[in-house]
């Protein structure tokens, strides 16, 4: 089994910063990509940022220049540094990972971490 455990969410004022972390554990053989989605109340889940096994990154337009995704391959961990936060960034942030666990390749999701930005 593979588990993704997130941390780092919380309450912050507009203009502030937060850093999210997501660690993959269990029967991890190879991680192909990791990243973050978010879902605000009443809205669909949307991609925030992703990072590939080679380090290539992609960002949603609404976070470009404010959020930075990075990865520690030795720790099977992905980070999301969020700066210049806005109230509209308020959402539950979900980590995802495209992992091969020695048997199959599949997508895995974390439990979600709440980010609340006050105005």
Report on this model:
With 119 residues, the chain is mainly beta. The protein is built from no helices and eleven strands. It has strands spanning 2-7, 10-13, 18-26, 30-39, 46-52, 57-59, 67-72, 77-82, 91-100, 105-109, 113-118. The strands form two sheets. Strands 2, 4, 5, 6, 9, 10 and 11 form a seven-stranded mixed sheet that branches. A hairpin with a 4-residue loop joins strand 7 (67-72) and strand 8 (77-82). It is elongated and about 45 Å long. The model has no long low-confidence stretch (mean pLDDT 96).
List the helices and strands and how they pair.
Elements: E1 2-7, E2 10-13, E3 18-26, E4 30-39, E5 46-52, E6 57-59, E7 67-72, E8 77-82, E9 91-100, E10 105-109, E11 113-118
Parallel strand pairs: 2-11
Antiparallel strand pairs: 1-3, 3-8, 4-5, 4-9, 5-6, 7-8, 9-10, 9-11
Percentage of residues assigned to helices: under 10%
Radius of gyration (CA) equals 14 Å
Uncertain runs with pLDDT below 50, 5 residues or more? Answer: none
Shape: elongated
Which H/E pattern describes the elements? EEEEEEEEEEE
**Count of beta strands:** 11
Largest sheet: 7 strands, mixed
Distinct helical segment count: 0
| Cα-to-Cα separation, first versus last residue | 40 Å
Characterize this entry briefly.
This protein is mostly beta strands and 119 residues long.
What tags apply to this protein structure?
4-stranded antiparallel sheet, 7-stranded mixed sheet, 119 residues
